[in-house]
Amino acid sequence: MDAIRKKSLTNKPKKSLGQNFLIDKNILQKAIIWANPKAGESVVEIGPGFGILTEALLNFGANVYAVECDQALCQILLRQLLPKWPNNLHLLHGDAVKLPRAGYDGTDYKVVANLPYAISTPWIEGILRGPLPKSMTILLQKETAQRFTTIQGPQMGAISVRLGSAFQIIYSHHVPPTCFSPKPKVDSMLIHLERRADMFLFNERTYALIRFLFNHRRKQLHGIIRRMDTCVEREILFKWLQTVGGQTLRAEQITIPQWQYLASIPAPLSPLLSG
């Protein structure tokens, strides 16, 4: 794989695909230790690039399901890795947003990936539709990682609520731009998440409502709810708002358990406005 690593430094990365290749062995080792891949386990990898992380996972005997959008990189991976691991490497050429589990159709798997920053949010939303992985060890833009894992405050968003209801963050580690080639203009963060024993899953309709409320984060929830489409929904939401703290609250002030309580209310909630 040294030849591949050298090639990754000489080939011009495609900016349109958000290609920043991890070259720091210490970060790679930390990701592997946190993920703890075992022989026979299924691991989903997004954007394997030149296969540095892929090879490490295969060396542990994992069954790696990877999706790569760059056709040229797919060909390199197939030439270099498939002959040695014909039964363990399952590689797809495609869009990870459309294939969030890289073609894996089971329910018992882990995720280990250096995520292209541009697809982080739509990809994680795809993963959260289930079935959920046992753990995720992912490398993200630092700002995105903080937004994903915050539990309350200005950085919180709908994705924080959904992710925090299903996973808990176990480890995090700052990763500077020097760990990549080419160097990104932002800092990154390696995080390790494990599925909660008491995980809570939001249905798509309720999640759409939560996302709608966060899209108007500067407004008080009472004012947003007042413009909801139906009287039934307004009545239910006003009662929920009174239960969790009152009319002056904004979306970022609602805790994850309070959002879960909203999701448990048996009502036809909708994010639509009346005008």
Kindly describe this structure.
There is one protein chain. The chain has 2 domains: about 1-195, Vaccinia Virus protein VP39 (Rossmann fold, 3-Layer(aba) Sandwich); about 205-265, no CATH class. The N and C termini lie far apart (about 60 Å). The longest helix is centred in the last third of the chain and has 14 residues, at about 230-245. The chain is built from 11 helices and 9 strands. The protein has helices at about 1-10, 25-35, 50-60, 70-80, 120-125, 140-150, 160-165, 205-215, 220-225, 230-245, 255-265, and strands spanning about 20, 40-45, 65-70, 90-95, 110-115, 135-140, 165-175, 180, 190-195. The strands form 2 sheets. It has a 7-stranded mixed sheet with strand order 4-3-2-5-6-9-7. A two-stranded antiparallel sheet has the order 1-8. It has about 280 residues and is α/β, with parallel strands linked by helices.
- Kindly state the percentage of residues in helix: 25-40%
Widest sheet, order of strands? 4-3-2-5-6-9-7
- The global form is elongated
Taking all Cα atoms into account, the compactness measure Rg is: 21 Å
Main features:
single chain; Rossmann fold; 2 domains; 11 helices; elongated
Outline of the structure:
The protein has 275 residues and is of the alpha/beta class. The chain has helices at 2-10, 25-35, 52-59, 71-80, 120-127, 142-149, 158-166, 204-214, 221-225, 231-244, 256-264; strands spanning 21-22, 42-46, 63-68, 89-93, 110-114, 135-141, 167-175, 180-181, 188-195.
